Amino acid sequence: IRDWQWEISTAVLSLACTIAVFAVLLVYQGKPTSEWKTPHGITLNTLVAILSTLGRGALLVPVTSCISQLKWLHFMGSPRRLHDIEMFDEASRGPWGAFTFLWRLRLRSKLAAWGSLIMVLSTAVGPFTQQLITYPVRSIHHENAELGVAHILDSRPEYKNHVVDGSAFNGISPKLQSAIYSGLYNLGNPVQFTCPFGNCRWNAFSTLGVASKCRNSTIGTHISCEPRHGGNVLQYCNYTTPNGFLFNIVESGVLISTAKSYNDPSGISPMNSTILELAVIKVGFPIIDHMPPRVAEITECELRWCATTFLNASVVNGTFHPGPTYTTELALTDTERWFASSYNFKTANDEQLFGNPNFTIGSEDDYNIKSFLAEIFSTDSYKSVGIVLRNSSSFPDLMANISRGLTYAIGSNLRATTLLGNSTTTEQFVSISWPWIALPMSEAFMGILFLISTILVSKRRGVTTWKSSSILPLLIQVEGWEKEDLVAASLDGIERKSKRMHGLVQAGE
Fold first, then answer.
1. Is 118 helix (H, G, I), strand (E, B) or coil?
2. Exposed, middle or buried, 365 (CB in 10 Å: 0-12/13-18/19+)?
3. Which site from 22, 134, 218, 310 is most exposed, i.e. has the minimal number of CB atoms within 10 Å?
């Protein structure tokens, strides 16, 4: 054993390196690449490559020594061709020599053939080790996305100390006003949310909102015209819509909008969830003189308090997407409360709702929103809002924008609650393909077994541990050959003679 200490040490080192590779990969399997931190920027692949290269180099030390030792065992017991010495030496020098040994001498020295196989397979240890590690990308979900959900609308705490022109603020909150104008001028509907990684998703939820509904009432509108005094030109016309809106038109090519809110100055609670009803008439020019103005379009719309349900709200790349939505009507639950500070509503169909079916609206917010909407929608084509209405290609879309903006703004009022959702990010992680480690592990264990087998065979047959000693041939006494047999003029000549000549090694005293 003393003569094999170096080989035993390197074999143990080879096994230790292989086990170290296995241990490192086992620890970091499935972990994000960000957790790998080493000095000087050494990557996981680099460390594995260093360990596998060191292990392979250490493994070749005992393998080459064992093949060289088996060379002497090969020549003991029976005469062998001298050329076999060259075959053993080439096998101990590297993979190519080991490969040629396998198909030339594999049957005459099975143990040496095993060592040659280990030598050949060692060339694949590096590529196999590199195949162990991949860095795929996976999605990571965190429950830290936030979105406002409102069952109560009450702006008083937010604006109780707000002062405008030296007096206390007593109107629609700026946030709700901004939502109305943003929808009216198609400026987008900003939503307040928290999405740390830019991609988030929320489960279905219901929140207090505003619903809109419009219909074309052109056909159902009653028109009555009167002639101008002293003439026969029909110019003064009354238009009465199905919902009872009356328009007195005295000129052509105009737009007039009128609205009525459901505010009761007596202080009694509203009778239903209606916020506003309005009618918009676009009056064209007469086709022929002495005829009444042509009615281009009459649209009637209404806004109502409702429960808005979002089935799949999400944020994609920082942009909010409401996903599929639907609204549920609200019914007033306390219709005889005098001078109430708030109004309580309940959904008509709880089965369509996600969460609490009860909703509360502050009386001041209810009054201020209704008054503000009634004021801005009582307009004509000479005012800014009227110009917007005249140029609008779709009143239903315009009202839907306003109701959507109000719904989003209500969801961010101070009495709203926070709904948690999942934020999604991607990360690279360490993925280990464990089958690829079979070869490096097998090589390490086969190398140790090969070393143990060679030591035991040498001991059993009483062969001195000569291994690859270059001094030994100089000390061998050659017998049985003529002097001219030991002389060759060239390397080729030596090789030809070695294939014809046979030798036997006998240990002396």
1. helix
2. buried
3. 134
